[in-house]
Amino acid sequence: MQVLSGARSKTLSVSRPLAGILFFSALAGCSLVEDRSERYVSAPEGEMIEVPEGADASRIGQAMPIRNISTSDTRRYYPSELPTPPDMTSEILDENYVIEELDGRAWLLVNEVPGQLWPAVSAWMNETGLGVAEQSPQAGVLQSELANFSKRSRDLLGLPGEPSADEDRVVVQARLTPGVRRKTTEIRVRKLTLESSPEGLLPWDERASVSDQALAQQKELLSGLSTFLQGRENSKSVSRAASDMISRPQVSLMKHNDVPLAMRVELGYDRAWAELSRSLEASDVAVVDMNREEGWFRVDFRTADERGGGWLSSLGSSPELVHTHTVDVKGGADAVLVTVDRSDDYTGDHSSGDLLTLLFDDLN
């Protein structure tokens, strides 16, 4: 084919400088991308988020906690020394006694097994003047004597005046259950107002609604119980009867031929959803999308090699999330069943059972 005179040399003269530019651009790497790391330092402080009128800020804060950060350290952060985000689970791991609240319920989370705490909770009830009239280690429930006729218990519960024959009868119950996390115990307390003296141990109703005033009193009682337990750490005793509660874990993995099929969580739906959300974050499983009403998490459960990232990772860009598995949460007020479905488009190494096992190990 005939080539016009000068055409070939002109093409080469243009392509060489362009190739040179691309070559040096590749060597420069991140120099073509704006370094935004110092924006963290100079960013202005935003305004406080206000909840809509009529909403309870304290309950929203428990579902979506924002941890307090100390501002005493005002040293300059350089691009290579940006602080890592605080671990939202560190308070639970570092402290032995934490009062938690979710969906109108409050409990004291203790890093100890129920058998160790049962005698101490009984001692707290006696120390505060409540006494112990009924108890069931199998159910994990302690029930006080009538609080009406003890000055200490009346002061503890804020009962007005002197006892009278026609006033409602008041008792206090404490319930100990194995915590979701291994070797922990959750303690709840509640005040019951009755028309007459109870006959025997009253059943614990998980579905009973609690007013804001009653919830505040429960947290105050739990705070006093926490202080009492901390003061008795060096004088522990064990209840063999209460130790039976350890054999009833709140999280169990269901298998067939040693293959995980589902996970049963002995918690109400709202609490189970919150625990699963925390577990996915703690296990470094990225959530692509979620729907609490329909009960599913769509997650990216690829291996590190499958995520790759290539040359984009050197520019500070994260690889795009891919929906590989769906975590389904089905159940009611007392327990939920968690299953995992693997996406048809995912051809990687991680199975549905791998994700179930990972969540079970974290929760258990």
| Helix residue percentage | 25-40%
The beta-strand count equals 12
**Oligomer type:** single chain
Domain count: the total is 2
The major beta sheet can be summarized as: 6 strands, antiparallel
**N-to-C SSE string, H for helix and E for strand:** HHHHEEHEEHEEHEEHEEHHEEH
Question: Can you name the CATH architecture of the largest domain?
Answer: 2-Layer Sandwich
Query: Order of strands across the widest beta sheet?
Result: 1-2-6-5-4-3
Q: What is the CATH C level class of the largest domain, in words? A: Alpha Beta
Give the radius of gyration.
29 Å
Question: Could you report the average pLDDT, rounded to the nearest whole number?
Answer: 80
Q: Which fold name is given in CATH as the topology of the largest domain?
A: TATA-Binding Protein
| Count of alpha/pi helices | 11
Described by the principal axes of the CA atoms, the overall outline is: globular
Runs in which pLDDT lies below 50 for 5 or more consecutive residues are 7-15, 26-31, 69-79, 86-93
CATH superfamily label of the largest domain? Outer membrane protein assembly factor BamC
| Class inferred from helices and paired strands | alpha+beta
Short description:
This protein has 364 residues and is of the alpha+beta class.
Sum up the structure in keywords.
Outer membrane protein assembly factor BamC, TATA-Binding Protein, BamC_C, alpha+beta, 364 residues
